[in-house]
Amino acid sequence: MLRKIMFVLVILFSALLPAAALADNNIVVQQLSFPVTLSDGNTYTIAGYLYYQGSYQNKPLQVLVHGGGYNHLYWDVPSINNNKYSYARYMAEEKYAVLAIDQLGTGQSSKPNGDFVTLAETASAIHQVIGQMRSGNNALGQPFNKIVLVGHSFGSINAITVQATYHDADALVITALGHVPHELPFTNEFLAELAQYEYFTLPPEVRSAVFYSAPAADPDVIAYDNANLIDQITRGQLFTTFAAIFNDSVAQVSGPVLVQLGQNDALWPASYANGEAAYWTSASSITVQSLPDVGHSFNTHLDNKRGWKQISQWLSATAGWN
Q1: 147: Cβ–Cβ under 8 A, 6 or more apart, which residues?
Q2: Which of 42, 71, 115, 283 has a CA that sits 20 to 30 A from residue 226's CA?
């Protein structure tokens, strides 16, 4: 009798929970570790977080690469004020397996000397993670035959470098990064100040101004970002990744490519979208989309799901997935 009463109470309590909480209960998050050997001959660890609904088997895999000043949590921000901000969970519900990594030097991944953590090393680490997921030489013992690489901002530079150098992914999604030359809102004095430190973080006031379009974002989300999502950037990345923004590696990228630019992005606004496709000369196809009402950190703006839906639709139409 007591067991029946407890069962009824559980059902009643569940009925009172928000729909978002119930939906999230169906998503499994599994932490994985990937050993990677870099140019100094040492082995480091990349932390990854696999999101899936039901099972990860026989599903295409999205590998997510966060931008500078974040870690994998950029892709898994909790619901705030009844709005969902987790790209990883959204795509898991779209029947993808989703691997969000902490880049070298961030989160739970290894943190070598900051001058060693350059674009070449971070790209090599991502390449090795993808190789382990594709081959099945991973903690799951599961190979993934269809892989899309998804980058945000600095992570997009990494994703481009990986695809241009190693051609690891079956498709590439680039967000918050373009290639039409223009002036960026960082002074030489500000960059020189950051370069004093092996590891550094961006001040909250800079993040708020550069990463967000205030009219298109919830102030509580901006506050949450500055309190919970800040992570470090290395001096090595400042001198190599930042310097690679407008290099020509984009011309070596193969396979289908989707680029999304935000209308209110302070760094790479959609006003440059019309000139973007010309840089992707080796891609089998290139689609450039302009997203209204989002700033640089796409996932944490109110209209984030517009871009997420377009990514899912593009993958379905272009790669025949889902």
Answers
A1: 60, 61, 62, 63, 130, 133, 134, 168, 169, 170
A2: 115
| Helical residues (DSSP H) of 136-228, grouped into ranges | 154-165, 188-194, 204-211, 219-224
**What's the total number of domains in the chain?**
1
Length of the chain: 322
Question: What's the CATH number where 244 sits?
Answer: 3.40.50.1820
- Assess if residue 136 is contained within a domain: yes
For the stretch 100-159, pLDDT in tens is 999 999 999 999 999 999 999 999 999 999 999 999 999 999 999 999 999 999 999 999
Q: Would you state the torsion angle of the CA atoms of residues 149, 155, 159, 165, taken in this order, to the nearest 10 degrees?
A: -160
Q: Which residue has the tokens 């779209």?
A: 94
2: exposed, middle or buried (Cβ count in 10 Å: 0-12, 13-18, 19+): exposed
Question: For 232-271, how does the pLDDT look when each residue is reduced to its tens digit (9 = 90+)?
Answer: 999 999 999 988 887 789 999 999 999 999 999 999 999 9
187 lies in a domain?
yes
Identify which of 293, 290, 296, 294 has the alpha carbon closest to the alpha carbon of residue 310.
Answer: 290
Q: What is the DSSP letter of 74?
A: G
How far is residue 143's CA from residue 132's CA, in Å, rounded to a whole number? 8
Q: How many CB atoms lie within 10 A of CB 221?
A: 23
Distance, CA of 241 to CA of 263 (rounded, Å): 24
User: Given this model, what pLDDT does residue 24 score?
Assistant: 61
Q: Are strands 199-200 and 97-101 parallel, antiparallel or unpaired?
A: unpaired
> Which structural domain range is residue 48 located in?
27-319
**Is residue 11 assigned to a domain?**
no
98, 91 Cβ separation under 8 angstroms: yes
The answer as to whether 172 is a domain residue is yes
Kindly report the pTM of this predicted structure. Answer: 0.92
Written as six digits, the tokens of 309 are 């839906």
